[in-house]
Design goal:
Largest sheet: 4 strands, mixed
Shape: elongated
Number of domains: 2
Number of strands: 6
Order of helices and strands: HHEHEHEEHHEEHHHHHHHHHHHH
Number of helices: 18
Strand order of the largest sheet: 2-1-3-4
Helix content: 55-70%
């Protein structure tokens, strides 16, 4: 009974210490602002960034320059036809001097397949590339049709792109945009990765700071090391849970009213509609955050007990951090085939299930039975990791001056 009471005393101390911090309050409030910004800013940039771009057209074909210029004016660019003998160096220097954003070189045999090239300070923009490619394609095809004696209406019908839409449908839910579903799943998993890492490292640093300041000796004299470690994980985890709950709630609201939100900034038609987060999905995310946090926080606490300074933690924590990074690198595996064998196996492995299973579930690749099995494996693994970490913590927390060898840690685990 005393052990449980001591654990909650430590947990309360760790929780209040973080919740009362100005940085905690600031990040909890700024998190929703960042979520709104992630949706609004890219849409604003997409709609505003190319307006007013100054482009010079070097037309050596004598047939396409004016037509391409007309297309660009329709997109609110500022094109200008320059003499065909304009040198490459002249055009490049005008970009350097900020007189233009870029230039298009139309070669003499462009209609026969020679490359039409654009170079500019905005050439890295995929939006610019897509707009220019579409304009050039339309003009070149139109000119080829005119020379072949095909009427513009007939040519438009022949070359019109088919209406095609890729959607996610697992057979049990309503079809949604595949890209939008991936976006939601990716963001959720990345938030989990970020929060588990931040708060896991917070547990480790708390242990290291108390070791280096010798406060640990006083605390161990008052409570058992196991209660001390459990209290730290509970307190820091509770602070993280408060923050994640606020972020998820705001994220669900933002997704549900995305179009209305963009409308306030004058942006319309900004991509596919994003699916709203359902209660079951939020519950799965929170469950994996809580258990996944305990799983990794126990390992970070053990790392903090093993070292004697902040500098040493940078190296010792690397294996734990790399396990999380591997999970992040596998996001594409889950999104490509959420019901495949690789996805099923990855989401059952406790090192990666806290990050990958929420994404797989949101994409409709996992049933509630698979989620329950994955959670069961994760809970069992967490109990084993916490037990092993407690043994390392009990001895390592009072060690100073040297890092334990692998043989010593094995001896602690057997003790």
């Amino acid at each position: 009974m005393k052990t449980v009471r001591d654990t909650f005393v430590i947990a309360r101390r760790e929780l209040l210490e973080r919740v009362k911090s100005k940085w905690f309050v600031a990040m909890t409030l700024l998190g929703p602002v960042f979520m709104v910004a992630m949706i609004v800013i890219p849409a604003l940039i997409a709609s505003k960034s190319v307006v007013g771009a100054k482009v010079e057209i070097v037309d050596r074909s004598g047939a396409l320059g004016e037509q391409i210029a007309a297309e660009l004016r329709g997109m609110r660019w500022i094109p200008k036809i320059v003499p065909p003998e304009t040198s490459y160096e002249t055009s490049k220097n005008r970009i350097r001097d900020n007189e233009i954003n870029g230039f298009i070189v139309i070669p003499k045999h462009a209609l026969e397949g020679e490359f039409i090239i654009y170079e500019g300070d905005n050439g890295s923009s995929q939006i610019v590339a897509m707009m220019l490619e579409e304009s050039v394609r339309k003009v070149v095809q139109g000119e080829r049709g005119r020379r072949a004696g095909i009427s513009p209406d007939t040519l438009d019908k022949l070359l019109a792109r088919p209406n095609f839409l890729s959607q996610l449908n697992t057979g049990s839910t309503k079809a949604t945009s595949g890209l939008a579903a991936f976006f939601v799943g990716y963001i959720l998993s990345f938030i989990l990765y970020m929060v588990i890492t931040l708060y896991g490292v917070a547990v480790m640093r708390s242990v290291v700071q108390e070791k280096t300041s010798r406060v640990m000796e006083l605390m161990v004299a008052a409570v058992k090391p196991r209660s001390l470690m459990a209290g730290k994980i509970l307190g820091v985890g509770a602070a993280g849970l408060v923050q994640v709950s606020v972020w998820l709630t705001m994220g669900a609201i933002t997704l549900a009213y995305r179009n209305e939100l963009l409308g306030l900034f004058g942006v319309t038609g900004a991509g596919p509609t994003l699916p709203a987060l359902e209660l079951a999905e939020i519950a799965v995310v929170l469950a994996y955050f809580i258990i996944g946090f305990f799983f990794y926080a126990a390992m970070y606490a053990a790392v903090g007990a093993m070292v004697s300074s902040e500098q040493e933690t940078q190296q010792v924590q690397m294996p734990v951090t790399m396990l999380l990074v591997i999970g992040v690198l596998c996001f594409q595996v889950i999104s490509s085939d959420p019901r495949g064998t690789a996805s099923t196996v990855m989401t059952m492995v406790p090192f990666w299930s806290p990050l990958l299973m929420p994404m797989r579930y949101v994409l409709g690749g996992a049933s509630l039975g698979e989620v329950a099995l994955s959670l069961g494996i994760l809970i069992l693994s967490t109990a084993l990791v916490v037990r092993a970490a407690a043994k390392i913590y009990r001895v390592g927390v009072l060690m100073y001056g040297k890092r334990p060898s692998l043989r010593e840690m094995v001896r602690w685990l057997r003790y």
